[in-house]
Design a protein that fits this description.
The chain is an alpha/beta fold. It has one domain: TIM Barrel, CATH 3.20.20. It contains nine helices and eight strands. The protein has helices spanning about 5-20, 40-50, 60-65, 85-90, 100-110, 140-150, 170-190, 205-210, 220; strands spanning about 30-35, 55, 75, 95-100, 120-125, 155-160, 195, 215. Strands 7-6-5-4-3-2-1-8 form an eight-stranded parallel β-sheet. The longest helix has 20 residues, at about 170-190. The model has no long low-confidence stretch (mean pLDDT about 95).
């Protein structure tokens, strides 16, 4: 058994325990392998262990990796979306979790290749009280959701949130609960969404108990990253 297979077994146990604590099906929770700063060999090992969803923060790094993995892998962009990179993101990724403005959404829509399926989109929520952080405010969320739904070549799948680092568990719990409330409000408004992208290695249990359907896991799969 490879090291990443062992890590994946441990991860599945954590997911199963958290899901069962709130009477959820563990299979309803998608695991994204956050592979930034990991060598291609680590991604190949993750693919061999059964993972198919890979998430990248940095565009150029991802473009170097995508051709090295089998074509049935699903690629998720989870970094900030800059205007000068929307064309490459639209052309090479299956999902974007970090859409937070109509301007970026319209660029992704216009630049999605006609021969590719619709780009799957999550709206990134801004953490409470963090004006300097990426993400849409609660007030602007309805207008952005409506714009994405009306845009060609985009499919609105749900919401994503990344709480501020070093929050205590109570604050993280509140942020995840707020995201779940806004997700439910969009569903009640008629949006056919199914994805609540929240939770990482350190807080996945809190995220799952608050309804996450998609957790983004790096360190607990691949180990520490080399930033040199």
């Amino acid at each position: 058994m490879t090291q990443i297979t062992k890590q994946l077994v441990r991860l599945h146990r954590r997911v199963e325990s958290a899901a069962q604590s709130v009477d959820r099906d563990p299979d309803s929770i998608r695991i994204l392998a956050v592979s930034k700063k990991q060598p291609i060999e680590a991604l190949v090992a993750a693919y061999s262990a059964g993972l198919r969803d890979f998430a990248e923060n940095y565009l150029q790094e991802a473009l170097d990796k995508i051709p090295a993995i089998e074509p049935d892998a699903v690629w998720h962009f989870i970094g900030p979306v800059q205007s000068n990179k929307t064309r490459s993101i639209a052309a090479n990724f299956d999902w974007v979790h970090t859409v937070s403005s109509q301007r970026i959404a319209m660029r992704l829509s216009a630049q999605r290749p006609v021969d590719r399926d619709d780009l799957q989109v999550c709206i990134q929520l801004r953490p409470s009280g963090a004006e300097e952080r990426n993400g849409v405010t609660e007030e602007d969320l309805p207008d952005l959701a409506a714009a994405i739904m009306a845009a060609p070549k985009l499919c609105l799948r749900g919401l994503m949130i990344m709480p501020l680092p070093n929050n205590n568990e109570a604050v993280t719990h509140r942020e995840f609960a707020r995201a779940h409330r806004l997700y439910d409000e969009l569903k009640c408004a008629g949006y056919a969404i199914d994805t609540l992208s929240m939770g990482m290695s350190a807080d996945l249990e809190v995220a799952i108990t608050q309804g996450s359907t998609c957790i983004r896991i790096g360190t607990d799969l691949f180990g520490s990253r080399d930033y040199e």
